[in-house]
Known about the structure:
The complex is a heterodimer.
Chain A: H1 14-25, E1 29-34, H2 41-45, H3 50-59, H4 96-107, E2 109-114, H5 127-146, E3 152-157, H6 163-173, E4 179-185, H7 198-206, E5 211-214, H8 232-252, H9 255-258, E6 264-267, H10 273-288, H11 299-306, E7 307-310, H12 320-330, E8 335-336, H13 359-373
Parallel strand pairs in A: 1-2, 2-3, 3-4, 4-5, 5-6, 6-7, 7-8
Chain B: E1 12-16, H1 23-27, H2 32-40, H3 61-66, H4 72-83, E2 87-90, H5 102-121, E3 127-132, H6 138-148, E4 154-162, H7 173-181, E5 185-192, H8 207-227, H9 230-233, E6 239-242, H10 249-263, H11 274-281, E7 282-285, H12 295-305, E8 311-312, H13 334-348
Parallel strand pairs in B: 1-2, 2-3, 3-4, 4-5, 5-6, 6-7, 7-8
Amino acid sequence: MMLDAPLAPELETDADQRLKREAQSRLKIIDGDVHPAARSIDDIKAFLPQRWREHLEIYGSRRKLGMSYEPYPKSAPRACRRDAWPDDGGNPGSDLDLIRSQYLDAYGIEYGILGPLGLSGHSELNQEFSAALTAAANDWQKELFAKPEPRLKAAIVVPTENTPAAVAEIERCADDPVYAQVFMLTRTTEPLGNRRYWPIYAAAERHGLPVGLHVFGSGGHAYTGTGWPSYYVEESAGHATSCQTAVTSLVIEGTFERFPRLKVVMIEGGFGWLPALSWRLDKLFERMRSEVPHLKKKPSEYIRQHIWVTTQPMEEPQDRKHLFDVMEWIGWDRLLFASDYPHWDFDDPFRAFPAGLSQEHHRQILAANGRTVYRLA
Amino acid sequence: MLSSNGQYQGAIDCDIHPRVPTPRMLARYMDDHWRDTVEVRGIETWDSISYPPNAPLTSRPDWRAAGADAEPARLAEATLDRFGFAHAVCNSLFAVQFFRDHNLAAAFARALNDWLAAEWLDRDSRLKGSVVLPMQSVERSVEEIERRAADHRFVQVLMLAMGEHPLGRSMYWPIFAAAERHGFTVGIHAGSSYHHALTGSGWPTYYLEDYAAQSSGFQAQLASLICEGVFVKFPKLKVVLIESGVTWLPPSLWRLSKFWRGVRLEVPWLDRSPEEFARDHIRLTFQPFDAPPSAAHIGRIMDQLKSDEMLLFATDFPHWQFDDDEVLPACLSPALARKILIDNPLAAYPRLGRPA
């Protein structure tokens, strides 16, 4: 691998950095993971039909976790940067002016791809409510974020465990250019390649939309195959395993054989795990080919062709060459920058990558690859 | 038949599998109550789906044809004599872990370990054993460790990659205390009790996925053992991750170490990075080696491990992980090969060096 920039970080003044940032801003960054938030629950309720507004008020959100929030208290309130809280109240990610000044303008973001978490219907036990909430989340993103701020592209959140409703929701939204992806979470009731989810992939493929698979969610299972970890640090590191489950299942079930134009973007699970998984699957495929005769290619070939990974939270080996090893193995055209704004583990597009990354590869990851995946002009 | 070049002479094979016994075979090692239980309650089979008997992975074709895992003499012919191994550590895969009743689990674990001693360890002094623990009960597991402690042919205590709870939990610490006290290495072997869905997203469809998912189980255990502070509490403990692959480890540690830097206030007892704990306390058996067969890739992966002490030689006999004599890739330097074959296993298993 050629390293055409010096390995030692350069010493720069603040003014130098500002100039450099302004220059690099012209790269026009495309960010694969930005989290909008409701200022209050009323923002979402405004987009719910009366019947479900009342349901929410009376019964609340009920997920396969026994609670409506997350079981591991975060490292910061709402897992957000402490400087991302708007001065006039509301949650980080809810104030468009602050999003603009602190993030879109400051970094020269051309497009930020939204990924709604929180009360957006992903994992609701009541399937009809799940469908109603995802529809509300999609209308809310469009009206409050993507329409007033064209740099923000919305995601079609779907009620993952209610496949017919998920397909209907994709059909309802797909022709509207404010939506850039179909959006699901990785912890599902069945591994994501299971045939019950295939109509969702069929709809995404039909409309040329990539499917973004973001970590988190609650499918009704312990978060690991050996039960519940104790700590947030374990859950956070462990998201990479839920990504491994999803990619394994999508490939081995033959999802990409059935949907040859499907594009899948793995979000917020990092990427270091992907080469090791590819090799492991190839080795097992060689042994157990007779179990999966529907696969016509090696697992690594499906992965190379259909899977993209966002970079945040960037793995940080002590030796940065090791990071370049895995980027090289994954393929420079398969890595998409993501910031995770406004969350605490935000990656800065200019500081998160180690020195020594070539400008060409930096440009590819910051914008060119995203432009291709999300079909942005 | 002897191996042609003697490259494995004196090696220590850290993972072999005697053929899984049936419940009736184990009942012969039980007292009247439990022998009657096996008969009266009709416990005829107790097979895990982890290794379907006819699946290609489960047995290398030439070893399958020879019945090489059926008895010590045939095992010796297939591997120990052929390669010139000094020792091989037997890991019993009878599914003790499946019982919901901890009394049954303890009875079967005890019988299984007695069976291994009588039918394998007694018959070939090169064979060493792992003490299978009934992890359903911490108390019964500690009893089993104490029962075996005087028999130095047992060098390790054995648990599965996926059980009831992550293994770092303080409820399990009496087991680690007993293991450390008696110099047992802690072995965690691929496999699940299937008491939880195999993944955090449910049950995968295919056997291929099940085996692939083992490395996710190991990633969870690694994080648990480190984050709960097991190695702070038990500084002499060595943990061997068995039949788990190798290449997943460096990226998993990068990620864990990064999050530790971010949220270490949650686990303030960790006085250094997860990567450092791993290099001091975690070992991995070599097969199934999961890097592409290119010297360039293997060189990069060895560099990423940042240690030449973590890998332990293993064939995973009779599982079909390699062909012919290619247990180790040819591109390893002789010095590194020597460490993997002999020095690292001796360091990881202190009981190996003691008289039986």
